[in-house]
Amino acid sequence: MRILVFSDSHGYTDKMIDIIKSLNNVDMIIHLGDLVKDAKKLEDSFKHIQIEYVSGNNDWSAEAPKEKTIQIGNKKGFITHGNLYGVKTGYARIAYRSQELEVDFALFGHTHVPFESYYNNTLLINPGSISLPAPENTASYCLLEVSNQGIYSKIHKV
To answer: CA-CA distance, 103 to 133, in Å (whole number)?
Structure first.
């Protein structure tokens, strides 16, 4: 399954829409919060693509969950914005939560800085911000390939 992972779009959806249109074989889009309304806009625009999303710290009245687990084939994932796990000061809490949930991968945002690393056998990925990257970074997203054989990811700079 080919999955686009976005985070921290903050009301700017043009880059996401352009990326989705340029990749004609996307099976799923995951939006990691800030803002849920952007994920809903994608959902309305691309009805043929499955979209999963969670709310972030700037989604004040969002009815979306703050975190969830998803199953893709024989792989289990955890998605959250990251603010609940203090990712701006380190990744230990989200890594421990991922271990508790016994997931194969965990996706989070919030820092606006791309990150990818394994903790034990769990792949931790932050795609960075698609619209408002942290200083000295560029806008970015992740393309994730999930199959029964493994998980492959690449963070792309825009």
So the answer is: 27
